[in-house]
Amino acid sequence: MKILKGVAITGMVLVAMSNPYFGPRILKALLRERQRKNKRAVEKSIRYLHDRGYVVMSWLPDGKLKVEMTKQGGMITQQIDLDEMRISKPARWDRKWRVVVFDVPNTKSKHRLAFTQHLNNIGFRMIQKSVWVHPYPSHREVMILRKFYGIESYVIYLETATVEDNELWREKFDL
User: Fold this and answer.
1) HSE toward the beta carbon, residue 136, CA cutoff 13 A
2) Does residue 64 have a pLDDT over 90?
3) What topology is assigned to 85-172 in CATH?
4) pTM of the model
5) Is 1 helix (H, G, I), strand (E, B) or coil?
6) Residues 56, 51: Cα–Cα separation, whole Å
7) Which of 48, 64, 84, 137 is most deeply packed, by most CB within 10 A?
8) CA distance 134 to 140
């Protein structure tokens, strides 16, 4: 078997060396194949987005394909930047605490874990396993996270002026 492979490779090298156009032609063929695969990958991605209702496709009179994002697609693009999400710090604290309380069932434990990790990443601190607190307005961020993980009905966002051990929490947030 090794001998047969060696003969095949040697024969290809001899053909390549005897034909000065072999190198450029094989390079062009490889580039065309790569472009064809990329085009197919893009088409497949657009079909995927269309099937899920994120984009609408239509043909223009000149034969070009027009792809437009739907409202649902726009909502998804907002949710995609979860890793970049930050809670802005106002110039002055309004002395209110934002509390997130949740009771996510065990069947969605992966979603619960990811949700709590994101709460931690955006600056919330845990009071208890399913109770988290933050001093600055963060309603929009929490709503996006709970929608993204499909746990809307299990998460509650509260604003309150009083938190037990207020001084301890003010210290944790450098307020």
Assistant:
1) 16
2) no
3) Alpha-Beta Plaits (3.30.70)
4) 0.55
5) coil
6) 9
7) 137
8) 13
